[in-house]
Amino acid sequence: MSGTTASNMKHLHDCRAPAKLNLFLHVVGRRDDGYHLLQSVFQLIDLADVLHFDLRDDEAIVRVTDVPNVPASDDLIVRAAQLLADAVAQHGRRPAGVDITIEKHIPMGGGLGGGSSDAATTLMALNHLWQAGLTRSELMRLGLQLGADVPFFLLGENAFVEGIGEQLTAVPTPPAWFVVIHPGISVPTPLIFRAPELTRNTKTVKMADFSGGLLGFGRNDLQAVAARAFPPVADAVEWLSGFGEARMTGSGACVFAAFASETEANAVLQRVPAAWRGWKARTLAAHPMVDLLQS
Question: Does the annotation count 149 as an active-site position?
Answer without folding.
Answer: yes
